[in-house]
């Protein structure tokens, strides 16, 4: 692997392998029968069953399909496995159709998938490394630490943390100008959240099973390095840039030592995106479920082309492959263009939009009379919420129809959804969101509108 920058000034295609949370219920269903993705999923299933004593497929393919929130409640480790499986399966599906990116970039857990997609590790080795990581964290992490996302750039986050000396809080991930993630003790992060609220910076507690990228995981890092001592990298067909190391992987690297160090080192995703953009990266493809990373990239560079092949649209992978082969007439759905309108209206295989699974029933729809009693009809509420979302997220208004799924269709992650619910509360003078509000219960734009109507009617 080269120690320099292999990209030069060419227009570059970047394959993005996401980490924790890049999942939606049913995301592996079509890939299980895909000629490219099926073998990858089968390999992950075999390793997971042997090493963790639990079947990935039995966990995630039951009906109704479990949401990310449900997996965090009952099988958080399997959520990590599902994220990894989705990445390598999407890549294999696209590779079978001729796709090869210029460079691969993983986010946290996604670096393991990126090394697999590059050919430096095979799928079985990557799955084994992931399972070792999971088992070590089970055994070694007794910290009780948590993670918190701030909707601000790193320098602003550091200023907030600086107001709490000796808190032990560290920057876990610099995701660019719009988001910084912290790790630390639950009590310290609670104080950070209070300070952030006081200075007007939205803060969202992340449901993470461990305080990743934190010195709190030092013992786990040492144990994982020992477990991974026998692994070696092969020569890759695609270079892999590490936003944790701040460089490309090299052939002389010890993957066990480096992948273990990820547990305690921060993810510099924003700076990595900047570097690749300066090198000519203009096409970014999400090699995983949803559009978490491509949305972060577009926040920084709106002019780039973002491809999201694993969505609820059953044709998205084929369309992405067609585009990447040069058939630009077959423009794939992108999470910040008018193509979102097409995606939001794409039917499922039985001709209707799949009912969003979840641990709780969607909130009841207020009657028009109830909303009108507050001086606003549902149409009035819809118009105001649509304008707020469009202006804040810089999306065209027409993508926000009632059925549009905020994460699966529009690439709005849970952190941003929580922030938007706060903004909705401010717009309609509803006050802060209730402590028990879960964005998973408001998966579609229409759910958010109905939440406002119900809240207004109950005042």
UniProtKB/TrEMBL annotation:
Residues 322-371 are annotated as: Disordered. It comes from the Bacteria. Residues 379-456 form the Carrier domain. This is [acyl-carrier-protein] S-malonyltransferase. It comes from Nocardia pulmonis. GO terms for molecular function: [acyl-carrier-protein] S-malonyltransferase activity. GO terms for biological process: fatty acid biosynthetic process. Keywords: Acyltransferase, Transferase. Its EC number is 2.3.1.39. PANTHER family: MALONYL-COA-ACYL CARRIER PROTEIN TRANSACYLASE, MITOCHONDRIAL.
């Amino acid at each position: 692997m080269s120690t320099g920058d292999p990209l030069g000034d060419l227009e570059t295609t970047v394959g993005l392998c996401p980490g924790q949370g890049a999942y939606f219920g049913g995301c592996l269903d079509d890939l299980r029968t895909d000629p490219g993705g099926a073998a990858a999923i089968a390999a992950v299933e075999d390793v997971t069953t042997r090493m963790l004593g639990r079947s990935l497929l039995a966990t995630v393919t039951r009906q109704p399909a479990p949401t990310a929130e449900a997996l965090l409640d009952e099988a958080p480790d399997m959520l990590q496995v599902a994220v990894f499986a989705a990445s390598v399966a999407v890549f294999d599906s696209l590779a079978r159709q001729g796709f090869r990116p210029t460079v691969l970039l993983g986010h946290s857990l996604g670096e393991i998938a990126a090394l697999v997609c590059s050919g430096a590790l095979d799928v079985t080795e990557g799955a084994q490394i992931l399972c070792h990581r999971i088992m070590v964290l089970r055994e070694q992490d007794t910290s009780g630490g948590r993670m918190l996302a701030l909707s601000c750039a790193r320098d602003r986050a550091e200023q907030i943390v600086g107001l709490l000396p000796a808190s032990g809080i560290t920057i876990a991930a610099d995701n660019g100008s719009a988001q910084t993630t912290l790790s630390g003790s639950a009590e310290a992060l609670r104080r950070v959240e209070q300070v952030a609220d006081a200075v007007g910076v939205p803060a969202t507690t992340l449901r993470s099973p461990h305080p990743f990228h934190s010195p709190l995981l030092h013992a786990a890092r040492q144990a994982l390095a020992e477990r991974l001592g026998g692994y070696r990298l092969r020569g890759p067909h695609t270079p892999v840039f590490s936003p944790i190391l701040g460089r490309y992987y090299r052939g002389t690297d010890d993957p066990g030592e480096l992948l273990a160090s990820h547990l305690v080192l921060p993810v510099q995703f924003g700076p990595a995106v900047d570097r690749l953009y300066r090198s000519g990266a203009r096409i970014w493809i999400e090699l995983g479920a949803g559009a978490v990373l491509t949305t972060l990239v577009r926040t920084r560079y709106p002019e780039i082309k973002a491809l999201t092949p694993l969505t609820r649209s059953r044709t998205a992978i084929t369309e992405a492959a067609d585009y990447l082969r040069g058939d630009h007439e077959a423009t794939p759905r992108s999470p910040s263009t008018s193509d979102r309108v097409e995606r939001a209206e794409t039917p499922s295989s039985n001709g209707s939009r799949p009912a969003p699974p979840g641990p709780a029933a969607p909130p009841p729809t207020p009657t028009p009379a109830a909303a009108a009693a507050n001086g606003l009809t549902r149409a009035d509420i819809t118009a105001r919420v649509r304008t707020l979302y469009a202006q804040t997220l810089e999306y065209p208004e027409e993508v926000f129809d009632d059925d549009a799924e905020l994460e699966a269709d529009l690439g709005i992650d849970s952190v941003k959804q929580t922030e938007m619910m706060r903004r909705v509360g401010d717009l309609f003078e509803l006050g802060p969101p209730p402590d028990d509000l879960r964005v998973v219960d408001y998966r579609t734009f229409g759910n958010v509108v109905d939440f406002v109507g119900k809240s207004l009617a109950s005042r």
